[in-house]
Amino acid sequence: MTQDQAPNTAASTAASTAANTAASTAPSSIPTPAALRRPTPAPASPAKPSTNADTAPSSANGASAALSSSMAFGRVDDDGTVYLNAPEGEVRVGQYAAGTPQEGLAFFARKYEDLVVEIDLVTARLGDGRAKPDQAAAVIERVRGGLAERSFVGDVAALERKIADAETAREAAAVRQAEHRERMREQTKAAREALVNEAETLAESTSWKTTAERYSAIVEEWKALPRSDRSVEQELWKRLSSARSAFDKRRRAHFAKLDSERKEAMAQKRALIEQAQKLAESTDWGPTAKALKKLMEDWKRAPRASRSDEDKLWKRFKAAQDSFYSAMKAADSARDAELAPNVTVKEELLAQAEGLLPLSSGKGLSETKRTLRSIQDKWDKAGDVPRSERSRLEGRLRKVEDAVRKAESQAWQQHDPEKQARAESTANAFTDALVRQEAELAEAQAKGDSAAVRRLEQSVESTRALLEAAQRIAR
Protein backbone atom coordinates (compact mmCIF):
# COMPACT_ATOMS: atom_id res chain seq x y z
CA MET A 1 0.00 0.00 0.00
CA THR A 2 1.33 3.43 -0.95
CA GLN A 3 0.81 6.74 0.78
CA ASP A 4 -1.94 7.68 -1.74
CA GLN A 5 -3.90 4.42 -1.57
CA ALA A 6 -5.83 3.11 1.44
CA PRO A 7 -5.97 -0.66 2.04
CA ASN A 8 -9.12 -2.57 1.38
CA THR A 9 -10.89 -4.48 4.14
CA ALA A 10 -9.15 -7.79 3.46
CA ALA A 11 -5.75 -6.14 3.41
CA SER A 12 -6.51 -4.37 6.66
CA THR A 13 -7.51 -7.65 8.28
CA ALA A 14 -4.30 -9.33 7.07
CA ALA A 15 -2.20 -6.45 8.36
CA SER A 16 -3.88 -6.66 11.75
CA THR A 17 -3.27 -10.43 11.91
CA ALA A 18 0.39 -10.00 10.93
CA ALA A 19 0.81 -7.31 13.58
CA ASN A 20 -0.62 -9.58 16.25
CA THR A 21 1.65 -12.45 15.12
CA ALA A 22 4.69 -10.16 15.17
CA ALA A 23 3.73 -8.97 18.65
CA SER A 24 3.73 -12.55 19.94
CA THR A 25 7.18 -13.37 18.42
CA ALA A 26 9.08 -10.08 18.80
CA PRO A 27 12.27 -10.15 20.93
CA SER A 28 11.98 -9.10 24.58
CA SER A 29 14.37 -6.16 24.27
CA ILE A 30 12.04 -3.73 22.43
CA PRO A 31 8.53 -5.13 21.68
CA THR A 32 6.74 -3.98 18.53
CA PRO A 33 4.23 -1.13 18.87
CA ALA A 34 1.44 -3.46 17.76
CA ALA A 35 2.12 -5.67 20.76
CA LEU A 36 1.70 -2.72 23.11
CA ARG A 37 -1.31 -1.25 21.33
CA ARG A 38 -3.18 -4.49 21.13
CA PRO A 39 -2.15 -6.63 24.13
CA THR A 40 -3.47 -10.19 24.26
CA PRO A 41 -4.65 -10.81 27.83
CA ALA A 42 -4.27 -14.30 29.33
CA PRO A 43 -7.60 -16.15 29.55
CA ALA A 44 -9.03 -16.22 33.04
CA SER A 45 -10.58 -19.67 32.73
CA PRO A 46 -11.07 -22.17 29.90
CA ALA A 47 -14.34 -23.35 31.36
CA LYS A 48 -16.64 -20.87 29.54
CA PRO A 49 -15.97 -18.53 26.61
CA SER A 50 -16.54 -14.88 27.39
CA THR A 51 -18.16 -12.25 25.19
CA ASN A 52 -16.18 -9.35 23.77
CA ALA A 53 -17.74 -7.03 26.31
CA ASP A 54 -16.61 -9.25 29.20
CA THR A 55 -12.96 -9.68 28.06
CA ALA A 56 -12.09 -6.19 26.79
CA PRO A 57 -8.94 -5.09 28.68
CA SER A 58 -9.00 -1.89 30.64
CA SER A 59 -6.14 -0.55 28.50
CA ALA A 60 -8.46 -0.52 25.49
CA ASN A 61 -10.25 2.51 26.87
CA GLY A 62 -6.94 4.34 27.19
CA ALA A 63 -5.92 3.34 23.67
CA SER A 64 -9.25 4.51 22.31
CA ALA A 65 -8.86 7.83 24.08
CA ALA A 66 -5.34 8.29 22.71
CA LEU A 67 -6.58 7.34 19.24
CA SER A 68 -9.38 9.86 19.42
CA SER A 69 -6.94 12.53 20.60
CA SER A 70 -4.66 11.83 17.64
CA MET A 71 -7.54 11.86 15.17
CA ALA A 72 -8.26 15.42 16.26
CA PHE A 73 -5.10 16.48 14.36
CA GLY A 74 -6.47 15.46 10.95
CA ARG A 75 -9.43 15.47 8.62
CA VAL A 76 -10.81 13.42 5.70
CA ASP A 77 -12.35 14.65 2.44
CA ASP A 78 -15.37 12.99 0.90
CA ASP A 79 -13.09 11.19 -1.57
CA GLY A 80 -11.12 9.59 1.33
CA THR A 81 -8.10 11.93 1.21
CA VAL A 82 -6.60 12.30 4.71
CA TYR A 83 -4.84 15.46 5.87
CA LEU A 84 -2.58 16.17 8.90
CA ASN A 85 -2.72 19.45 10.77
CA ALA A 86 1.07 19.96 11.14
CA PRO A 87 2.86 23.00 12.60
CA GLU A 88 3.91 24.02 9.08
CA GLY A 89 0.31 23.72 7.83
CA GLU A 90 -2.04 21.09 6.47
CA VAL A 91 -0.24 18.11 4.94
CA ARG A 92 -1.84 15.44 2.72
CA VAL A 93 -0.85 12.05 4.20
CA GLY A 94 -2.77 9.57 2.04
CA GLN A 95 -6.11 8.26 0.87
CA TYR A 96 -8.38 5.64 2.47
CA ALA A 97 -11.12 4.13 0.25
CA ALA A 98 -11.77 0.83 2.01
CA GLY A 99 -14.19 2.16 4.59
CA THR A 100 -15.77 5.23 6.08
CA PRO A 101 -13.85 8.51 6.38
CA GLN A 102 -13.73 7.99 10.16
CA GLU A 103 -12.09 4.58 9.70
CA GLY A 104 -9.57 6.15 7.34
CA LEU A 105 -8.70 8.84 9.88
CA ALA A 106 -8.36 6.14 12.59
CA PHE A 107 -6.03 4.12 10.35
CA PHE A 108 -3.53 6.98 10.03
CA ALA A 109 -3.95 7.88 13.72
CA ARG A 110 -2.90 4.35 14.65
CA LYS A 111 0.30 4.85 12.64
CA TYR A 112 1.01 7.89 14.81
CA GLU A 113 0.28 5.87 17.97
CA ASP A 114 2.76 3.23 16.78
CA LEU A 115 5.49 5.89 16.66
CA VAL A 116 4.48 7.21 20.10
CA VAL A 117 4.52 3.76 21.67
CA GLU A 118 7.91 3.00 20.16
CA ILE A 119 9.53 6.26 21.35
CA ASP A 120 7.91 5.99 24.83
CA LEU A 121 9.11 2.44 25.21
CA VAL A 122 12.72 3.20 24.32
CA THR A 123 12.69 6.24 26.62
CA ALA A 124 11.44 4.12 29.52
CA ARG A 125 13.99 1.41 28.88
CA LEU A 126 16.81 3.93 28.70
CA GLY A 127 15.72 5.18 32.10
CA ASP A 128 15.76 1.80 33.79
CA GLY A 129 18.91 0.63 31.96
CA ARG A 130 17.29 -2.13 29.90
CA ALA A 131 18.14 -0.48 26.55
CA LYS A 132 21.66 0.22 25.30
CA PRO A 133 22.39 3.67 23.85
CA ASP A 134 23.28 2.34 20.39
CA GLN A 135 20.07 0.29 20.23
CA ALA A 136 18.06 3.31 21.37
CA ALA A 137 19.73 5.50 18.74
CA ALA A 138 18.44 3.21 15.98
CA VAL A 139 14.88 3.40 17.37
CA ILE A 140 15.03 7.18 17.76
CA GLU A 141 16.31 7.52 14.22
CA ARG A 142 13.51 5.30 12.92
CA VAL A 143 10.83 7.31 14.75
CA ARG A 144 12.42 10.55 13.60
CA GLY A 145 12.24 9.24 10.01
CA GLY A 146 8.56 8.38 10.51
CA LEU A 147 7.94 11.88 11.85
CA ALA A 148 9.62 13.43 8.80
CA GLU A 149 7.51 11.34 6.38
CA ARG A 150 4.26 12.77 7.78
CA SER A 151 2.38 9.58 6.93
CA PHE A 152 0.25 9.67 10.06
CA VAL A 153 -2.32 11.74 11.91
CA GLY A 154 -1.37 12.99 15.34
CA ASP A 155 0.29 15.66 17.50
CA VAL A 156 3.52 16.45 15.63
CA ALA A 157 4.82 18.81 18.33
CA ALA A 158 4.21 16.23 21.08
CA LEU A 159 6.06 13.59 19.08
CA GLU A 160 8.96 15.98 18.51
CA ARG A 161 9.16 16.56 22.27
CA LYS A 162 9.11 12.84 22.92
CA ILE A 163 11.93 12.34 20.42
CA ALA A 164 13.91 15.13 22.11
CA ASP A 165 13.30 13.53 25.54
CA ALA A 166 14.40 10.15 24.19
CA GLU A 167 17.55 11.68 22.73
CA THR A 168 18.32 13.32 26.10
CA ALA A 169 17.77 9.98 27.84
CA ARG A 170 19.99 8.28 25.26
CA GLU A 171 22.81 10.78 25.82
CA ALA A 172 22.53 10.35 29.60
CA ALA A 173 22.57 6.58 29.16
CA ALA A 174 25.61 6.88 26.90
CA VAL A 175 27.39 8.90 29.61
CA ARG A 176 26.46 6.30 32.23
CA GLN A 177 27.56 3.53 29.92
CA ALA A 178 30.89 5.25 29.29
CA GLU A 179 31.40 5.82 33.02
CA HIS A 180 30.49 2.20 33.72
CA ARG A 181 32.89 0.97 31.06
CA GLU A 182 35.65 3.18 32.48
CA ARG A 183 35.02 1.85 35.99
CA MET A 184 35.01 -1.69 34.69
CA ARG A 185 38.17 -1.00 32.71
CA GLU A 186 39.94 0.34 35.81
CA GLN A 187 38.65 -2.47 38.02
CA THR A 188 39.63 -5.07 35.45
CA LYS A 189 43.05 -3.50 35.06
CA ALA A 190 43.54 -3.43 38.84
CA ALA A 191 42.45 -7.08 39.10
CA ARG A 192 44.84 -8.13 36.32
CA GLU A 193 47.69 -6.13 37.87
CA ALA A 194 47.04 -7.86 41.21
CA LEU A 195 47.23 -11.25 39.49
CA VAL A 196 50.44 -10.24 37.70
CA ASN A 197 52.05 -8.99 40.93
CA GLU A 198 51.15 -12.22 42.69
CA ALA A 199 52.52 -14.25 39.77
CA GLU A 200 55.81 -12.33 39.86
CA THR A 201 56.05 -12.81 43.63
CA LEU A 202 55.59 -16.57 43.21
CA ALA A 203 58.26 -16.83 40.51
CA GLU A 204 61.00 -17.59 43.10
CA SER A 205 58.87 -19.96 45.20
CA THR A 206 60.12 -23.45 46.02
CA SER A 207 56.71 -24.74 47.13
CA TRP A 208 56.44 -26.51 43.81
CA LYS A 209 53.06 -28.23 44.05
CA THR A 210 51.18 -25.42 45.81
CA THR A 211 52.63 -22.73 43.57
CA ALA A 212 51.92 -24.65 40.35
CA GLU A 213 48.29 -25.06 41.44
CA ARG A 214 48.08 -21.34 42.23
CA TYR A 215 49.46 -20.40 38.81
CA SER A 216 46.72 -22.51 37.18
CA ALA A 217 44.11 -20.74 39.31
CA ILE A 218 45.58 -17.32 38.38
CA VAL A 219 45.23 -18.13 34.68
CA GLU A 220 41.60 -19.18 35.17
CA GLU A 221 40.88 -15.98 37.13
CA TRP A 222 42.53 -13.98 34.33
CA LYS A 223 40.29 -15.63 31.71
CA ALA A 224 37.17 -14.94 33.76
CA LEU A 225 37.83 -11.17 33.83
CA PRO A 226 36.05 -9.05 31.16
CA ARG A 227 38.06 -7.83 28.20
CA SER A 228 38.99 -4.12 28.13
CA ASP A 229 42.15 -2.42 26.91
CA ARG A 230 43.83 -4.91 24.55
CA SER A 231 47.28 -3.29 24.63
CA VAL A 232 47.31 -3.11 28.44
CA GLU A 233 46.13 -6.71 28.69
CA GLN A 234 48.85 -7.89 26.33
CA GLU A 235 51.56 -6.12 28.33
CA LEU A 236 50.27 -7.49 31.64
CA TRP A 237 49.86 -10.98 30.19
CA LYS A 238 53.43 -10.85 28.96
CA ARG A 239 54.60 -10.18 32.53
CA LEU A 240 52.39 -12.92 33.98
CA SER A 241 53.50 -15.41 31.35
CA SER A 242 57.15 -14.52 31.93
CA ALA A 243 56.84 -15.05 35.70
CA ARG A 244 55.02 -18.34 35.19
CA SER A 245 57.61 -19.53 32.66
CA ALA A 246 60.46 -18.63 35.02
CA PHE A 247 58.84 -20.67 37.81
CA ASP A 248 58.16 -23.61 35.48
CA LYS A 249 61.78 -23.53 34.28
CA ARG A 250 63.09 -23.59 37.86
CA ARG A 251 60.60 -26.32 38.81
CA ARG A 252 61.62 -28.51 35.85
CA ALA A 253 65.31 -27.96 36.64
CA HIS A 254 64.70 -28.84 40.30
CA PHE A 255 62.91 -32.07 39.52
CA ALA A 256 65.40 -32.97 36.81
CA LYS A 257 68.22 -32.54 39.32
CA LEU A 258 66.25 -34.44 41.94
CA ASP A 259 65.63 -37.24 39.48
CA SER A 260 69.32 -37.37 38.60
CA GLU A 261 70.28 -37.43 42.29
CA ARG A 262 67.78 -40.18 42.98
CA LYS A 263 69.13 -42.27 40.12
CA GLU A 264 72.65 -41.78 41.45
CA ALA A 265 71.46 -42.68 44.94
CA MET A 266 69.84 -45.85 43.65
CA ALA A 267 73.03 -46.82 41.83
CA GLN A 268 75.15 -46.24 44.95
CA LYS A 269 72.80 -48.12 47.23
CA ARG A 270 72.42 -51.03 44.85
CA ALA A 271 76.22 -51.33 44.91
CA LEU A 272 76.16 -51.29 48.73
CA ILE A 273 73.44 -53.96 48.72
CA GLU A 274 75.55 -56.19 46.49
CA GLN A 275 78.51 -55.86 48.87
CA ALA A 276 76.30 -56.57 51.89
CA GLN A 277 74.80 -59.63 50.22
CA LYS A 278 78.29 -60.98 49.52
CA LEU A 279 79.29 -60.50 53.17
CA ALA A 280 76.07 -62.07 54.48
CA GLU A 281 77.46 -65.60 53.98
CA SER A 282 80.81 -64.91 55.68
CA THR A 283 81.76 -66.70 58.91
CA ASP A 284 84.73 -64.43 59.59
CA TRP A 285 82.65 -62.73 62.24
CA GLY A 286 84.86 -59.90 63.50
CA PRO A 287 86.19 -58.45 60.23
CA THR A 288 82.83 -58.97 58.51
CA ALA A 289 80.98 -57.12 61.26
CA LYS A 290 83.40 -54.20 60.84
CA ALA A 291 82.89 -54.28 57.08
CA LEU A 292 79.12 -54.21 57.47
CA LYS A 293 79.41 -51.29 59.90
CA LYS A 294 81.44 -49.41 57.27
CA LEU A 295 78.76 -50.18 54.65
CA MET A 296 76.12 -48.74 57.01
CA GLU A 297 78.11 -45.51 57.32
CA ASP A 298 78.39 -45.34 53.52
CA TRP A 299 74.64 -45.92 53.24
CA LYS A 300 73.88 -42.98 55.55
CA ARG A 301 76.19 -40.68 53.60
CA ALA A 302 74.72 -41.66 50.23
CA PRO A 303 71.97 -39.39 48.76
CA ARG A 304 68.38 -40.48 49.20
CA ALA A 305 66.25 -41.98 46.43
CA SER A 306 62.49 -41.50 46.22
CA ARG A 307 60.54 -42.64 49.26
CA SER A 308 59.16 -45.79 47.64
CA ASP A 309 62.54 -46.74 46.13
CA GLU A 310 64.34 -45.93 49.38
CA ASP A 311 62.07 -48.26 51.34
CA LYS A 312 62.60 -51.11 48.87
CA LEU A 313 66.38 -50.65 48.80
CA TRP A 314 66.62 -50.43 52.59
CA LYS A 315 64.68 -53.68 53.01
CA ARG A 316 67.16 -55.49 50.76
CA PHE A 317 70.19 -53.96 52.54
CA LYS A 318 68.81 -54.71 56.00
CA ALA A 319 67.92 -58.27 54.97
CA ALA A 320 71.59 -58.90 54.08
CA GLN A 321 72.72 -57.46 57.43
CA ASP A 322 70.13 -59.42 59.39
CA SER A 323 71.18 -62.62 57.67
CA PHE A 324 74.81 -62.16 58.74
CA TYR A 325 74.06 -61.04 62.30
CA SER A 326 71.57 -63.86 62.79
CA ALA A 327 74.22 -66.37 61.74
CA MET A 328 76.81 -64.70 63.97
CA LYS A 329 74.44 -64.70 66.92
CA ALA A 330 73.71 -68.38 66.42
CA ALA A 331 77.44 -69.12 66.28
CA ASP A 332 78.03 -67.05 69.43
CA SER A 333 75.28 -68.93 71.23
CA ALA A 334 76.82 -72.28 70.29
CA ARG A 335 80.27 -71.11 71.35
CA ASP A 336 78.93 -69.69 74.64
CA ALA A 337 77.36 -73.05 75.39
CA GLU A 338 80.76 -74.69 74.95
CA LEU A 339 82.48 -72.09 77.18
CA ALA A 340 79.91 -72.16 79.98
CA PRO A 341 81.90 -74.66 82.18
CA ASN A 342 84.86 -72.25 82.23
CA VAL A 343 82.74 -69.74 84.16
CA THR A 344 82.60 -72.07 87.18
CA VAL A 345 86.37 -72.55 87.12
CA LYS A 346 87.06 -68.82 87.02
CA GLU A 347 84.51 -68.12 89.74
CA GLU A 348 86.54 -70.44 92.03
CA LEU A 349 89.81 -68.71 91.05
CA LEU A 350 88.24 -65.29 91.76
CA ALA A 351 87.24 -66.47 95.23
CA GLN A 352 90.90 -67.35 95.90
CA ALA A 353 92.17 -64.04 94.51
CA GLU A 354 89.65 -61.92 96.40
CA GLY A 355 90.64 -63.84 99.56
CA LEU A 356 94.03 -62.04 99.36
CA LEU A 357 92.32 -58.73 100.17
CA PRO A 358 92.61 -56.59 102.08
CA LEU A 359 96.40 -56.61 102.15
CA SER A 360 97.67 -56.53 105.75
CA SER A 361 101.07 -55.68 107.20
CA GLY A 362 101.21 -59.18 108.70
CA LYS A 363 101.26 -60.89 105.32
CA GLY A 364 104.32 -60.41 103.10
CA LEU A 365 103.78 -58.67 99.80
CA SER A 366 106.10 -61.11 97.97
CA GLU A 367 104.05 -64.10 99.05
CA THR A 368 100.84 -62.38 97.96
CA LYS A 369 102.32 -61.66 94.53
CA ARG A 370 103.40 -65.31 94.12
CA THR A 371 99.90 -66.51 95.02
CA LEU A 372 98.30 -64.03 92.58
CA ARG A 373 100.64 -65.12 89.75
CA SER A 374 99.62 -68.74 90.34
CA ILE A 375 95.94 -67.77 90.14
CA GLN A 376 96.61 -65.81 86.94
CA ASP A 377 98.32 -68.85 85.35
CA LYS A 378 95.35 -71.07 86.20
CA TRP A 379 93.03 -68.32 84.87
CA ASP A 380 94.71 -68.34 81.47
CA LYS A 381 94.68 -72.13 81.29
CA ALA A 382 90.96 -72.22 82.11
CA GLY A 383 90.26 -70.74 78.68
CA ASP A 384 87.71 -68.20 77.40
CA VAL A 385 84.23 -67.62 78.82
CA PRO A 386 80.98 -66.48 77.13
CA ARG A 387 80.96 -62.85 76.01
CA SER A 388 78.18 -61.94 78.44
CA GLU A 389 80.31 -63.08 81.43
CA ARG A 390 83.68 -61.83 80.26
CA SER A 391 83.56 -58.24 81.52
CA ARG A 392 82.14 -59.17 84.90
CA LEU A 393 84.75 -61.85 85.67
CA GLU A 394 87.75 -59.94 84.33
CA GLY A 395 86.67 -56.83 86.23
CA ARG A 396 86.70 -58.64 89.53
CA LEU A 397 90.20 -60.06 88.90
CA ARG A 398 91.44 -56.64 87.80
CA LYS A 399 90.47 -55.12 91.18
CA VAL A 400 92.67 -57.61 92.99
CA GLU A 401 95.57 -56.99 90.57
CA ASP A 402 95.25 -53.22 91.01
CA ALA A 403 95.29 -53.50 94.79
CA VAL A 404 98.49 -55.61 94.75
CA ARG A 405 100.12 -53.23 92.24
CA LYS A 406 99.28 -50.19 94.35
CA ALA A 407 100.69 -51.78 97.51
CA GLU A 408 103.89 -52.67 95.67
CA SER A 409 104.27 -49.09 94.39
CA GLN A 410 103.83 -47.61 97.84
CA ALA A 411 106.41 -49.96 99.32
CA TRP A 412 108.91 -49.10 96.62
CA GLN A 413 108.48 -45.38 97.14
CA GLN A 414 109.09 -45.75 100.84
CA HIS A 415 112.35 -47.74 100.44
CA ASP A 416 113.97 -46.18 97.33
CA PRO A 417 117.00 -44.04 98.47
CA GLU A 418 117.88 -43.06 94.94
CA LYS A 419 114.42 -41.67 94.35
CA GLN A 420 114.55 -39.84 97.68
CA ALA A 421 117.84 -38.22 96.70
CA ARG A 422 116.48 -37.17 93.35
CA ALA A 423 113.45 -35.61 95.03
CA GLU A 424 115.65 -33.65 97.49
CA SER A 425 117.91 -32.45 94.66
CA THR A 426 114.88 -31.28 92.69
CA ALA A 427 113.50 -29.48 95.74
CA ASN A 428 116.84 -27.69 96.28
CA ALA A 429 116.95 -26.62 92.60
CA PHE A 430 113.45 -25.18 92.85
CA THR A 431 114.42 -23.39 96.08
CA ASP A 432 117.42 -21.72 94.40
CA ALA A 433 115.29 -20.77 91.41
CA LEU A 434 112.62 -19.29 93.65
CA VAL A 435 115.19 -17.16 95.53
CA ARG A 436 116.56 -15.85 92.23
CA GLN A 437 113.13 -15.08 90.82
CA GLU A 438 112.05 -13.27 94.00
CA ALA A 439 115.18 -11.11 93.78
CA GLU A 440 114.45 -10.27 90.15
CA LEU A 441 110.86 -9.48 91.07
CA ALA A 442 111.96 -7.10 93.81
CA GLU A 443 114.31 -5.36 91.34
CA ALA A 444 111.53 -5.04 88.72
CA GLN A 445 109.18 -3.61 91.31
CA ALA A 446 111.81 -1.06 92.31
CA LYS A 447 112.22 0.00 88.67
CA GLY A 448 108.46 0.17 88.13
CA ASP A 449 108.64 -2.22 85.18
CA SER A 450 105.04 -3.46 85.27
CA ALA A 451 105.46 -5.92 82.40
CA ALA A 452 108.46 -7.57 84.04
CA VAL A 453 106.66 -7.59 87.39
CA ARG A 454 103.68 -9.47 85.91
CA ARG A 455 105.94 -11.95 84.15
CA LEU A 456 108.08 -12.60 87.26
CA GLU A 457 105.04 -12.90 89.54
CA GLN A 458 103.74 -15.71 87.31
CA SER A 459 107.17 -17.39 87.34
CA VAL A 460 107.46 -17.13 91.14
CA GLU A 461 103.98 -18.60 91.58
CA SER A 462 104.72 -21.49 89.22
CA THR A 463 108.14 -22.25 90.82
CA ARG A 464 106.66 -22.17 94.32
CA ALA A 465 104.00 -24.73 93.30
CA LEU A 466 106.67 -27.02 91.81
CA LEU A 467 108.80 -26.66 94.97
CA GLU A 468 105.93 -27.67 97.21
CA ALA A 469 105.30 -30.77 95.05
CA ALA A 470 108.99 -31.74 95.14
CA GLN A 471 109.12 -31.28 98.93
CA ARG A 472 106.11 -33.58 99.39
CA ILE A 473 107.88 -36.30 97.40
CA ALA A 474 111.15 -35.82 99.33
CA ARG A 475 109.52 -36.27 102.73
Outline the fold blueprint.
Elements: H1 9-25, H2 33-37, H3 52-55, H4 59-71, E1 74-76, E2 81-86, E3 89-95, H5 101-127, H6 133-149, H7 156-202, H8 208-224, H9 230-279, H10 285-301, H11 307-354, H12 365-382, H13 387-414, H14 417-447, H15 450-474
Antiparallel strand pairs: 1-2, 2-3
Verbal overview:
This protein is mainly alpha-helical and 475 residues long. It has helices at residues 9-25, 33-37, 52-55, 59-71, 101-127, 133-149, 156-202, 208-224, 230-279, 285-301, 307-354, 365-382, 387-414, 417-447, 450-474, and strands spanning 74-76, 81-86, 89-95. It has five domains: 9-39 and 59-179, no CATH class; 181-259, no CATH class; 262-334, no CATH class; 338-412, no CATH class; 417-474. The chain is built from 15 helices and three strands. Strand 1 (74-76) and strand 2 (81-86) form a beta hairpin. Helix 6 (133-149) packs antiparallel against helix 7 and helix 9 (230-279) packs parallel to helix 11.
- Reading side by side through the largest sheet, how are the strands ordered? 1-2-3
Give the strand tally: 3
Counting structural domains, the number is: 5
Distance between the termini: 154 Å
The best one-word shape is elongated
Q: Major beta sheet, specifics?
A: 3 strands, antiparallel
How would you spell out the order of helices and strands? Answer: HHHHEEEHHHHHHHHHHH
Low-confidence stretches: 1-57
Write down the Rg: 60 Å
Q: Helix/strand-derived class? A: mainly alpha
- The overall pLDDT, averaged over residues, is 81
Strand content: under 5%
Count of alpha/pi helices: 15
What is the percent of helical residues? over 70%
